[in-house]
Design a protein that fits this description.
Blueprint: E1 2-7, E2 19-24, H1 33-38, H2 42-50, E3 60-64, E4 73-78, H3 82-86, H4 90-101, E5 110-114, H5 131-151, E6 171-176, H6 181-206, H7 214-228, E7 231-235, H8 237-242, H9 246-252, E8 260-267, E9 276-279, E10 282-286, H10 306-321, E11 326-336, E12 348-350, E13 356-358, H11 365-373
Parallel strand pairs: 1-6, 2-4, 2-5, 5-6, 9-11, 10-11
Antiparallel strand pairs: 3-4, 7-8, 8-11, 12-13
């Protein structure tokens, strides 16, 4: 689905769209552009004032062929009382967005979202922008992220015949006043970059561990050099050993897969500005080593590289948005498996800092690779 900004017309009832999405408050004396438009249909306004329309938060009601409206379908979204809406948190806003998404699984050519984001006054979650346009920035960005969470599918491992194309609207235009258009358009650009990073993280986590190996993560990082100019360095076993990262290598030695130490540098700020550094755990499969985990649910230990996947996703999104910061990502990645070479409970290893570590349980591998990475 593509997203665009739309200058709110005086009356929403004139909009030509396949689905008009409007928010309504429980307060009968608190009006939004949606309520003003409802007045174009006296019968609808009567239902609202009489309390026959459900205005509870997260409740959606679809109306068809309402007289006086150009849109053939109207989705009324309950927002609860205005006082609650003003202090809506990100989590609460997401619940409302998810409720809307449940009604969007149709191949509409165009839908229009007209929620009163400007009336959200919780400035604590709005930064780097003014309160008024900041509310639009926050609302629109969260809307794109929440829709993407509902639309996300992982079917890379399926055969073409098994894949089914998702049905979603082709275009969603977000209605906002003229003074919020600049903020809204910037938000949509940032939101698109954000969901690219989020999807990269999701895809890496969902990949089977025989595909998402340490080598694969290194290649994924190197692709950011080609697409976004991020400086990337990927070290193998010999160079990791040369750095005396013996704590890291102690975890990796039980596997036939070679470990990788990945460092990524994004330079978007002044060269003298201290960078933000993210370090992500990249255990692409964690059996527990010699201290073997229970078999039930062990397949989910492919997610033990989610820290690494998150760092890669953040680097991608930051570079895509061209944020004016300096950012470094560090990823130690390997497998933790049992074998004749694997570290044993009771072994003593020496970290890069020269400290000795007694390994009492080989399923405590995360701290062993992260201490050397740090």
């Amino acid at each position: 689905m593509k997203f665009s900004a739309l200058v709110s017309p005086t009356d929403l009832h004139t909009l030509k769209t396949d689905l008009l999405i409007v928010g309504i408050f429980s307060d009968k004396n608190k009006f939004t552009p949606a309520h003003v438009s409802l007045a174009k249909n006296p019968d609808l306004l009567t239902l609202y004032k009489r309390g026959d329309l459900n205005t509870d938060a997260n409740v959606c009601t679809t109306l068809f062929d309402v007289a006086g409206f150009s849109a053939p379908r109207i989705l009324l979204v309950g927002l609860g009382e205005l006082s609650a809406w003003k202090n809506t948190t990100m989590a609460q806003l997401s619940k409302i967005h998810h409720a809307i998404c449940a009604h969007l699984k149709h191949d509409y050519a165009k839908v229009t979202l007209a929620l009163p984001y400007a009336q959200i006054s919780d400035a604590a979650e709005i930064s780097s922008v003014t309160k008024n346009t900041g509310a639009w920035h926050r609302g629109a960005t969260q809307w794109v992220v929440d829709w993407n969470a509902q639309a996300y599918r992982f079917d890379q491992a399926k055969q073409s015949s098994q894949k089914t194309a998702p049905v979603w609207p082709q275009m969603c235009q977000i209605a906002a006043p003229e003074d919020a258009q600049k903020s809204l358009k910037e938000s949509l650009v940032q939101a698109q970059a954000l969901i690219k990073g989020i999807d990269l993280t999701r895809n890496l986590g969902n990949l089977a561990p025989n595909y998402c190996t340490p080598t694969y993560l290194g290649q994924c990082a190197q692709s950011l050099t080609r697409t976004h100019g991020i400086k990337v360095e990927v070290l193998g076993t010999k160079k990791i050993a040369a750095l005396k990262m013996n704590s890291f290598l102690a975890v990796a030695q039980g596997s036939d897969e070679e470990p990788r130490l990945i460092t990524m540098h994004y330079q978007g700020g002044h060269k003298n500005t201290a960078p933000v550094v993210l370090v992500g755990k990249g255990i692409t499969f964690d059996s527990g080593g010699i201290s073997l985990k229970p078999g039930l649910g062990m397949d989910e230990m492919k997610y033990d590289m989610s820290g690494a996947g998150t760092v890669l996703g953040v680097m991608y999104a930051v570079a895509e948005m061209k944020l004016p910061i300096n950012l470094i990502g560090v990823i130690p990645t390997c497998e933790n498996l049992p074998s004749g070479r694997a570290t044993k409970p009771g072994d003593i290893v020496t970290s890069m800092s020269g400290q000795t570590i007694e390994v009492l349980n080989t399923d405590a591998e995360g701290r062993l690779i992260l201490c050397d990475a740090l």
